[in-house]
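From the pipeline queue, job 12 of 40. The input is one protein chain; the requested action is below.

Action: predict structure.
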Amino acid sequence: MLPDTPRPESLQPGEVLWLTTTVNGTRYEEVVDSRLTLADFLRGQLRLTGTHLGCEHGVCGACTVLVDGDAVRSCLMLAVQVDGRSVETVESLAEPDGELTPLQEAFSRCHAVQCGFCTSGFLMSATAALREGPVTTPGQAREVLSGNICRCTGYAGMVQALLEVGEGAPGGE
């Protein structure tokens, strides 16, 4: 513990401070630099490398995670902004024994992945959307996927995967 480390209420560039957050159901209390992005915190400090950094400008969506249930670009968010909040990464989707969610299974079955770099962002965006309600039309599926970029698949498999699980349980789980 570093008792003299400030809390996030008084951020100054370059200072370190305490961060208390829950990531994938585990509570963390960490010291972070005030300029550290959430993506770098997840990958570097917590070693959760399923969140990928593509453009680092919030355009590609590869870094999408859920913060308090909302899909966000972790490359655009500072780690200190999740103080007291809950974060879910792609690592939270599968069961501890490796059993995949219906959404992950549908992505595999529908060949919705090729190189896999963007897949975690798509899965997190789709999970957030499915928790809000069913995805039942190709147009709705394309809207869900529109915030993420893939250079390999052509999106047809992802649309099909979303439609397969769209009427199922919330979050494709």
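Job complete. The chain is about 30% helix and 15% strand.
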